[in-house]
């Protein structure tokens, strides 16, 4: 019986294990578990979103050296042809103001799934080569899985990256912050949550919780440029180098610790992400 081994015997009024909890006792247990899960989520978000400021003399020197190499190669890249063997090796992504070329990544895996590991498949290619993987290819495996760049939180400056569409279907490409919550099971991706902003060229819409008419229709092989101006609070997109205009204004990039590149894909869709380790297909925005 439930009271077996209890010195109080049948008259005991205390719960003997979780299954006997009722009323306020059960509520307190459930609240404690919820608080623990929330604290763990916040710890994970802080780990991936926060970043260290470059402060030591050695790192400052490395930044100057990396910027010098970028400037020597011509930060404003031209299309096609030129040797890009050294571009972006030291620092990424590209800051289009030319004042800073981003944070340092020593590892090759800079793009990761948001949510379930089976929602998207991320392939870093090619591996190695000093600067790590130069592209990331993403394949949708769930109803609407999401992926994000890790190790970066943009709070100031102007940052740009490109997404080449390997298929021309339903994708939402753009930015998110540390409070973004995606749910592939119900089809919520980047732009469906208020802490994310995206361009959807299949339906010619912009998304951030709600949708609005925006942009041109895309197709397989097109290249989407994504520009965040954290100082001005604007997010703009480009299609094959042609500006589509500001999709969002009044964006507070620092509200949740910074914004980062992110995208969502329907099952069967795929894209290639370039954050500056390889030459961009189109010139950086002025």
Query: How big is the Rg?
Result: 23 Å
Biggest sheet overview: 8 strands, antiparallel
CATH topology of the largest domain: Jelly Rolls
CATH architecture classification of the largest domain: Sandwich
Name the average pLDDT: 75
Domain B30.2/SPRY: 83-280
Protein name: B30.2/SPRY domain-containing protein
Pfam family, one: SPRY
InterPro entries: B30.2/SPRY, B30.2/SPRY_sf, ConA-like_dom_sf, RNF123/RKP/RSPRY1, SPRY_dom
Could you explain the architecture of this structure?
The structure is a single chain. By secondary structure, the chain is α+β, with helices and mostly antiparallel strands. It folds into two domains: 18-47; 50-274, SPRY domain (Jelly Rolls). It has helices at residues 23-49, 57-73, and strands spanning 94-95, 111-114, 120-125, 135-140, 145-149, 158-165, 171-177, 196-200, 205-208, 210-213, 223-229, 234-239, 242-248, 259-265, 270-274. The strands form two sheets. Strands 1, 3, 4, 6, 11, 12, 13 and 15 form an eight-stranded antiparallel β-sheet that branches. The protein has a seven-stranded antiparallel β-sheet with strand order 2-5-14-7-8-9-10, with no helix packed on it. The longest helix is centred in the N-terminal third of the chain and has 27 residues, at 23-49. The termini are far apart.
């Amino acid at each position: 019986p439930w009271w077996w081994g209890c010195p109080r015997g049948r008259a005991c009024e205390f719960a003997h294990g979780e299954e006997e909890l009722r009323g306020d006792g059960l509520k307190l247990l459930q609240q404690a578990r919820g608080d623990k899960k929330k604290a763990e989520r916040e710890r994970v978000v802080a780990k991936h979103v926060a970043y260290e400021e470059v402060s030591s003399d050695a790192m400052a020197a490395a930044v100057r050296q990396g910027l010098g190499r970028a400037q020597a190669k011509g930060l404003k890249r031209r299309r096609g042809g030129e040797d890009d063997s050294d571009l972006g090796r030291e620092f990424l992504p590209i800051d289009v103001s030319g004042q800073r070329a981003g944070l340092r990544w020593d590892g090759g895996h800079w793009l990761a799934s948001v949510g379930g590991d089976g929602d998207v498949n991320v392939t870093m290619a090619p591996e190695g080569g000093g600067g790590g993987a130069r592209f990331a290819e993403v394949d949708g495996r769930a109803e609407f899985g999401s992926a994000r760049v890790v190790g970066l939180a943009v709070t100031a400056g102007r940052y740009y990256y490109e997404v080449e569409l390997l298929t021309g279907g339903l994708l939402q490409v753009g930015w998110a912050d540390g409070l973004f919550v995606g749910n592939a099971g119900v089809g919520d991706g980047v732009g469906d949550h208020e802490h994310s902003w995206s361009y959807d060229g299949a339906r010619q819409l912009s998304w951030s919780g709600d949708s609005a008419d925006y942009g041109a229709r895309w197709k397989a092989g097109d290249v989407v440029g994504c520009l965040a101006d954290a100082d001005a609070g604007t997010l703009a997109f480009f299609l094959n180098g042609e500006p589509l205009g500001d999709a969002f204004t009044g964006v507070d990039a620092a509200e949740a610790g910074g914004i980062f590149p992110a995208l969502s894909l329907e099952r069967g869709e795929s894209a290639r992400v370039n954050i500056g380790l390889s030459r961009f297909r189109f010139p950086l925005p002025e």
